[in-house]
Specification:
Elements (H helix, E strand, L loop, with lengths): L16 E2 L2 E2 L1 E2 L10 H14 L9 H21 L7 E4 L2 H16 L5 E5 L8 H10 L2 E5 L9 H7 L4 E7 L11 H10 L3 E5 L11 H4 L3 E5 L10 E5 L1 H5 L11 E4 L4 E3 L13 H17 L1 H20 L4 E4 L8 E6 L4 H10 L2 E2 L1 E3 L4 H7 L4 E5 L6 H18 L1
Parallel strand pairs: 3-15, 5-6, 5-7, 7-8, 8-9
Antiparallel strand pairs: 1-2, 4-10, 9-10, 11-12, 13-14, 14-17, 16-17
Helix pairs in contact: 1-9, 2-9, 3-4, 10-13, 11-13
Length: 405
């Protein structure tokens, strides 16, 4: 048994039987399962440590605040930020991107400025920019893809210009699995004076993040994608940019002084964290990130790459299967359709075989448009999967084709 095979025992959801069979969970790109250290940390806080953070005058509040800020420091180290002040807690990558579009975008974008996106973006990195474009008169441009699902560098070169004020792109496509060269794209944007926004939601569970080495201005991700709780996300931003941004929401915690005449705001990150946060989720994010460190990136990537390549090879042997995205160097997911069969029908058959996958447009409808489909079946792999999971998945896909053809 390899070291990664032992990871399965850390996830209690996989110990249960469904319809009398083991669960084959292949939906980690939507949400990663929670390991025991995360589950136990949430329970410990709710059972024995419950208190609100910041400004409390008693032991439990001081303790909760210390754990909360220790988690901020853990995120700082995880993304290699310079300071904890550059880490803002949100409820997820979606809120992080909305915060940025409103707090940075409304102040800095003007009529005829350009917002550059890519064809592979998740709706969370499209709609907030559309909203701020409508508010400011800025225009959106889109970088297209090559036939194999990579970013078209020639199209990028054509569309980056001095009019580009922000280049917002995903580090990893949640539909195609394409890994984008973040440092290279950031450098290209800097050459025309644009700021960079990286959606890291699909990236953080499989690859190391280094915001300083990349030179990125903003980076967003969700805790639940990286073995953490729901309802907690992160927005990293360079200090000098965060200091120039007005708050996204008003309320408690984000103020320095309030009168009916005017309000002065707290420093970053607190000015962007109005109200009571999801305290237990923030605190439990620390053991989630530590869980990644327990295995190390090399072991995680080797294990997951072996599984995804086995899945791709098996799918190619099933007549009528059409695979999407690059064949090598991707995130641990496969996205496909079976010609002539609706993706939802395939998903139902797989579910009957206890194989949990995701079907639909994956919140990437503009991408589906150029792929010429309304949706795909997506199977995604993580540390807790094994080769038997892949074999059961392939067997279920073959059965779905046989039954539905």
């Amino acid at each position: 048994m390899s070291s990664m095979e032992k990871a399965r025992a850390d996830f209690p959801v996989l110990t249960q039987k469904i319809r009398g069979k083991n669960l084959v969970y292949l939906d980690s790109a939507a949400t990663a399962l929670k390991p025991w250290p995360v589950i136990e940390r949430i329970s410990l806080f709710n059972s024995y440590e419950t208190a609100n953070v910041h400004r409390g005058a008693h032991y439990l509040a001081d303790q909760a605040t210390r754990y909360f800020e220790e988690s901020r420091a853990a995120v700082r180290d995880f993304v290699h930020a310079r300071a904890s002040e550059e880490i803002i807690f949100t409820k997820g990558a979606t809120e992080s991107l909305n915060l940025l579009a409103q707090s940075w975008g409304r102040v800095n974008l003007h009529a005829n400025d350009e917002i550059l996106l890519t064809r592979m973006e998740h709706h969370a990195n499209i709609v907030p920019w559309q909203m701020v474009a409508q508010q400011t008169g800025a225009k959106i441009k889109v970088v297209e893809l090559t036939p194999d699902g990579q970013l078209d560098r020639q199209d990028l070169a054509r569309k980056l210009s001095p009019l580009t004020k922000v280049f917002a792109f995903t580090a990893c496509s949640n539909t195609l699995g394409t890994i984008n060269p973040v440092a290279e794209l950031v450098s290209a944007a800097k050459a025309v004076g644009a700021i960079t926004v990286v959606d890291g939601a699909q990236f953080v569970a499989n690859h190391a993040v280094d915001v300083q080495a990349w030179g990125v201005d903003f980076f967003a991700f969700s805790g639940h994608k990286v073995f953490g709780p729901y309802g907690v996300g992160v927005l990293y931003g360079r200090q000098e940019l965060l200091r120039s941004m007005p708050p996204y929401q008003g309320g408690g915690s984000m103020i320095a002084k309030v009168t009916f005449a005017e309000t002065t705001y707290n420093e970053s990150p607190f000015r962007f964290e109005a109200g009571t946060p999801n305290i237990e989720a923030v605190i439990a994010l620390k053991p989630a990130l530590e869980y990644v460190g327990k295995w190390g990136w090399a072991a995680i990537q080797e294990h997951e790459n072996e599984l995804v390549q086995k899945a791709r090879a098996g799918l190619r042997e099933i007549a009528g299967v059409r695979l999407f995205g690059p064949s090598q160097g991707t995130a641990p997911l496969v996205s496909f359709v079976i010609e002539g069969i609706h993706h939802s029908d395939v998903g139902q058959i797989l579910d009957q075989e206890n194989v949990a996958v995701r079907v639909g447009h994956h919140c990437t409808q503009p991408l589906m448009e150029v792929l010429g489909v309304t949706g795909t079946v997506r199977a995604s792999f993580s540390v807790y999967n094994n080769t038997q999971d892949v074999e059961l998945f392939l067997k279920a896909v073959a059965k779905a084709k046989e039954m539905l053809s």
